[in-house]
């Protein structure tokens, strides 16, 4: 009887890992889960990843947790070494989303016994069906079908093969790890076998759709609705290009047919993603960077500088590809926190909008009073919506500023999820429903704003806001979210220490959401969680706001340039200066075609960046 030990590698695993363990643990002698340094285990020690791993342990899995992320090959080697120490005759390797049929291991063990009877002992066995698609195969060896470049997930490797050729090559880090192992096995006389009648389900990349331009649709009959295909995350183009080229150089003479087929397949799959997939410029850059790295003989993890340059090439942070968190479910109680300073004139509009929420679960409203002198407390005491909203007034007297008020409100909140909005805006009726729906798999989530409801057309023309579907971000760095529409889990808020009250000149919201992400969290975007946003309606107001925003951005750069935040490119500054000169309001409006308020916002923002750069000793103009 063949003794089989399963090894499952994981990184920021979700509930699907529990299903993997459930499908495999009864079929093997023992099962080992190796977590490859998930950041959440450090940033949120009792969070969703911890609960997932503990659930696997309850099912009978042995847990190994590496202190940092060293790549899938290292994680596999940790588990395989432990399996061999346990006396395994064969090791089954699995990914964190792979499901096995109930008889998978039994069928594979029988096939290994058949191979041994034919004199084949240095072998690995792989499934015949992957997601109901026939796995690649080619020749036969002594009547048994040989697999062509089998995937690592679902692979059963005999002890004799591992002892003969060694473990997985860790310097490849990720991608092509199993391919190198397969080619090395063939070079030493080993074989990869297809096991008839076996099936696994496994996610192969993410689904993408390309819709041809309208002019091409008549020529591409049958594809007018679009072409669906699978694509890898952009950063993997670096590893695939680097590692494949390395393997061509090492095994090309011995495996010319494999090289030819591999080049053809990669040209189609990777080329298609670069031509019609998402983040095309980033994919092109990372492919070129990986090719250059292979020519230079570079190995290991992708350099941080390459990731930063890829962000600039693609226009969207690579960090956005970070996996979502495990589904937390909806909050038990939402605490809506509203910092207010002298807001009696406008807060009723916001409270009425909150009372009209279609959110079906409990929530409370906490108004944090930051030094108001207009009778705000008296206005809220006995308010007609007090019971309906579970409304509470909180004393946030102290340093002036919304950050201090938000921290005071959060400290008094009873909920496990905090939703921040402002007292002079107005939330849409589905705000909490949409915000919490996205927050189920994120540490924090930013909503969207519209400016048409609460502002005159003249005021709207002064400041251009992003459309709801576009999240805010610092190009080449990380996404951020304004605190006029932001939700965050209370434990994440406490873990990063809340808002930094030292940001007294704006950007406290960007600083907070950046710290959430640097601590291993995920910032989501909920475009349908809308708020009607009130703009500054005086020229002095728009000027003061723009100067403050510029100073805050410069402070952010001073503090986060060491984390990869890039400087403003010179051409962006040149563009602003040209704009201010050519669109100067002293010139006739028929020539400039720019409202005075918009010009002032650009000018004030530039002045703010200059002042902030001088104040914080970091050039961000």
Automatic annotation (TrEMBL):
Pfam families: Glycos_transf_2 (PF00535). Gene3D superfamilies: Spore Coat Polysaccharide Biosynthesis Protein SpsA, Chain A (3.90.550.10). InterPro entries: Glyco_trans_2-like (IPR001173), Glycosyltransf_2 (IPR050834), Nucleotide-diphossugar_trans (IPR029044). It comes from the Bacteria. Residues 7-108, 335-460 form the Glycosyltransferase 2-like domain. This is Glycosyltransferase 2-like domain-containing protein. It comes from Gordonia caeni.
């Amino acid at each position: 009887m063949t003794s089989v030990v399963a090894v499952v590698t994981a990184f920021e695993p979700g509930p699907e890992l529990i299903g993997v363990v459930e499908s495999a643990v009864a079929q093997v002698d023992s099962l080992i889960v190796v977590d490859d340094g998930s950041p959440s285990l450090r940033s949120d020690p009792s969070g969703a990843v911890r609960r997932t791993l503990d659930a696997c342990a309850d099912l009978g899995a042995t847990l190994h947790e590496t202190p940092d992320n060293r790549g899938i090959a290292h994680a596999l080697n940790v588990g395989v070494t432990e399996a061999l120490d346990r006396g395994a005759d064969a090791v089954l390797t699995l990914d964190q989303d792979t499901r096995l049929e109930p008889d998978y291991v039994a069928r594979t063990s029988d096939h290994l016994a058949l191979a041994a009877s034919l004199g084949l002992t240095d072998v690995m066995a792989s499934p015949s069906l992957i997601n109901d698609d026939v796995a690649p195969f080619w020749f036969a060896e002594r009547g048994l079908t040989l697999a062509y470049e089998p995937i690592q997930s679902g692979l059963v490797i005999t002890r004799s093969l591992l002892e003969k050729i060694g473990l997985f090559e860790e310097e490849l880090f990720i991608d092509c790890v199993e391919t190198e192992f397969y080619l090395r096995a063939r070079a030493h006389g080993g074989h990869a076998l297809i096991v008839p009648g076996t099936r696994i389900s496994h996610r192969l990349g993410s689904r993408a759709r390309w819709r041809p331009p309208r002019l091409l649709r008549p020529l591409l009959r049958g594809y007018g609705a679009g072409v669906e295909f699978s694509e890898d995350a952009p950063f993997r183009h670096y590893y695939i290009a680097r590692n494949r080229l390395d393997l061509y150089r090492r095994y090309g003479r011995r495996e010319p047919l494999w090289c030819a087929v591999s080049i053809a397949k990669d040209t189609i799959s990777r080329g298609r993603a670069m031509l019609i997939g998402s983040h095309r410029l980033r994919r092109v850059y990372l492919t070129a960077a990986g090719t250059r790295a292979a020519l230079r003989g570079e190995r290991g993890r992708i350099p941080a500088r390459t990731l930063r340059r890829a962000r600039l090439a693609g226009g969207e942070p690579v960090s956005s590809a970070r996996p979502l968190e495990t589904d937390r479910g909806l909050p038990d109680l939402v605490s809506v926190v509203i910092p207010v300073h002298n807001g009696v004139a406008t807060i009723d509009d916001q409270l009425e909008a909150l009372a009209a929420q279609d959110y079906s679960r409990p929530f409370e409203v906490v108004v944090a009073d930051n030094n108001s002198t207009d009778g705000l407390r008296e206005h809220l005491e006995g308010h007609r919506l007090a019971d309906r909203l579970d409304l509470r007034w909180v004393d946030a007297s102290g340093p002036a500023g919304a950050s201090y008020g938000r921290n005071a409100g959060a400290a008094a909140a009873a909920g496990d999820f905090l939703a921040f909005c402002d007292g002079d805006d107005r939330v849409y009726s589905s705000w909490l429903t949409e915000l919490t729906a996205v927050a189920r798999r994120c540490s924090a989530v930013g909503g969207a704003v519209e400016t048409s409801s609460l502002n005159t057309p003249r005021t709207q023309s002064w400041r251009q806001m992003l459309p709801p579907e576009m999240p805010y971000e610092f190009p080449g760095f990380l996404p951020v979210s304004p605190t006029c529409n932001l939700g965050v889990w209370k434990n994440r808020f406490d873990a990063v220490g809340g808002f930094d009250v030292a940001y007294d000149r704006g950007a406290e919201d960007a600083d907070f959401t950046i710290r959430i992400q640097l601590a291993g969290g995920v910032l989501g975007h909920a475009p349908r969680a809308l708020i009607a946003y009130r703009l500054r309606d005086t020229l002095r107001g728009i000027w003061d706001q723009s100067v403050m925003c510029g100073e805050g951005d410069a402070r952010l750069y001073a503090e986060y340039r060491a984390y990869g935040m890039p400087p403003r490119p010179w051409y962006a500054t040149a563009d602003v200066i040209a704009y201010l000169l050519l669109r100067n309001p002293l010139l006739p409006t028929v020539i400039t075609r720019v409202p005075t308020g918009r010009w002032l916002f650009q000018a004030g923002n530039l002045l703010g960046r200059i002042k902030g750069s001088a104040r914080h000793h970091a050039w961000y103009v």
